[in-house]
Amino acid sequence: MTYSGHFKIKFLLYTRANTALPQVVTKTPLSIKHSHFSSARKTKFMIHGYQSCHSHWMINMAQAILTRVSLDHKHVGVGFH
């Protein structure tokens, strides 16, 4: 088996500011700075394996995670922006 070491990895960022359409974030500091990413907030990663397209279930999962985290924190009196 030959391994080329070249994967086309995409980082798609969902936040409460963009729940339906993710931002594509690269490893460059400028890309991260211009995104909705905040190191002060909890971050979750969804690793879905080798798929060449952005499936509808990924959008549903991201929205469910954002909704769940928001609801959980409302119960303890901590809010999110």
TrEMBL record:
Annotated keywords: Secreted
Molecular-function annotations in GO: lipase activity
Subcellular location: Secreted
Domain Lipase intervals: 7-68
Pfam families per record: Lipase
Keyword Cell cycle among UniProt keywords: no
GO cellular component: extracellular space
Keyword Secreted: yes
Main location: secreted
One GO BP annotation of this record: lipid catabolic process
Family listed: Belongs to the AB hydrolase superfamily. Lipase family.
Protein name per the record: Lipase domain-containing protein
Organism: Dreissena polymorpha (Zebra mussel)
